[in-house]
UniProtKB/TrEMBL annotation:
Coiled coil ranges: none
Protein name as it appears in the record: Putative glucose-6-phosphate 1-epimerase
Active-site residue numbers: H171, E279
TM ranges: none
Similarity comment text for this entry: Belongs to the glucose-6-phosphate 1-epimerase family.
GO biological process, one term: carbohydrate metabolic process
Catalysed reactions, as listed in the record: alpha-D-glucose 6-phosphate = beta-D-glucose 6-phosphate
GO molecular-function term, one example from the UniProt record: glucose-6-phosphate 1-epimerase activity
InterPro entries (UniProt xref): Aldose_1/G6P_1-epimerase, G6P_1-epimerase, Gal_mutarotase_sf_dom, GH-type_carb-bd
Keywords: Isomerase
GO cellular component: cytoplasm
Length: 307
């Protein structure tokens, strides 16, 4: 049996969940149940897409130019940023947003819930690279429940005899009609660090609308957010727990051009216009101390309603 056949024999669910490999050897879990379709790349524990069946367009966006290759991060989906967010504090050579999104994970469980939703759980596999960059004994797990809503829990367990500090994010790319026509609500009055203005501390006045590169870490907020999308006539709700930061990011034209993997988009105006990242995080002021022997959980739930 090949590893893929073995995985399908142990963890596939007839009519709901099947594993496949791409031409680069990456393995994906494809989920199709009564409520939604989704695809998850085992590398990075990275959900690549999610479309509830009552939606014509996916809710989790992935670039048509995304690379699906060993050791490469995927442009779109739900990258798992861990055990740090942004650049590493002291080591400039370590990858931005940590290593979790580019290393192999393994499937530890899969099942159908009583509701008919599909649940899948994965665990990050330690490698020489992860041990060199993270010299603490820990276990990182992700649990996804795919249905009309999408629930994700990221679980960090400290297996060491000392406390450690993590930064983390579920760096979700949401699909939208056009960046010029959406508003993000829920962060009114919150304090943020503005990454496009040298991390200046500011306070959010009203809902967020976009007319240029935006890269903000809202701190000390566990608030539910929503993306109001006038063009796709839908509101995406983002509820969370165990997360005190929310990152809002759009690269806009110039940065997207430089980054080079946003694709032309459905409109042909640039894929970057059809996504916005609203990331449930613990970053900067809100990095988390995980005491020895304890588990920290970050949970999100995404749902969609007419707008
Ligand atoms: O290109 P990456 O590493 O996936 O990061 C994308 C963006 O991720 C956001 O979370 C950061 O705030 C941005 O500064 C960054 O550009």
């Amino acid at each position: 049996m090949t590893p893929l056949e073995h995985l399908n024999a142990r963890r596939a669910i007839e009519g709901q969940l099947r594993f496949r490999a791409n031409d680069q050897g990456l393995i994906f879990a494809d989920i199709d149940n009564d409520f939604a379709q989704a695809s998850l790349c085992l590398q990075g524990g990275h959900l690549v897409s999610w479309r509830p069946k009552d939606q014509a367009r996916p809710v989790v966006w992935v670039s048509s130019a995304a690379k699906f290759a060993p050791g490469k991060s995927i442009r779109g989906g739900v990258p798992v940023c861990w055990p740090w967010f942004g650049p590493h504090e002291t080591e400039a050579g370590f990858p931005a947003h940590g290593f979790a999104r580019t290393v192999p994970w393994e499937v530890t469980d899969s099942c159908t819930l009583e509701t008919g939703e599909t649940e899948i759980a994965l665990m990050l596999l330690e490698t020489e690279q992860t041990r060199a960059q993270w010299p603490h004994r820990s276990r990182l797990e992700i649990m996804l429940s795919v249905g009309r809503s999408l629930k994700i829990t990221l679980m960090t367990t400290n297996l060491d005899d000392h406390d450690f500090v993590i930064g983390e994010a579920l760096h979700t790319y949401f699909e939208i009609g056009d960046i010029g026509e959406v508003r993000v609500t829920g962060l009114e009055g919150s304090e943020y660090l503005d990454k496009v203005d040298n991390f200046a501390r500011k306070r959010q006045d009203g809902a967020i609308a976009f007319n240029g590169e935006t890269d903000r870490v809202y701190v000390n907020t566990g608030a539910e957010c929503a993306i109001e999308d006038a063009r796709l006539k839908r509101r995406i709700r983002i509820a969370k727990s165990g997360s005190q930061s929310t990152v809002v990011w759009t690269p806009w034209a110039e940065k997207a051009e430089k980054m080079g993997d946003f694709g032309p988009g459905i409109s042909g105006q640039g894929g970057w216009r059809e996504m916005v990242c609203v990331e449930s995080a613990n970053a900067l002021d809100n990095r988390v101390t995980v005491p020895a022997g304890q588990t920290h959980r970050l949970t999100v739930e995404y749902s969609v309603e007419p707008f």
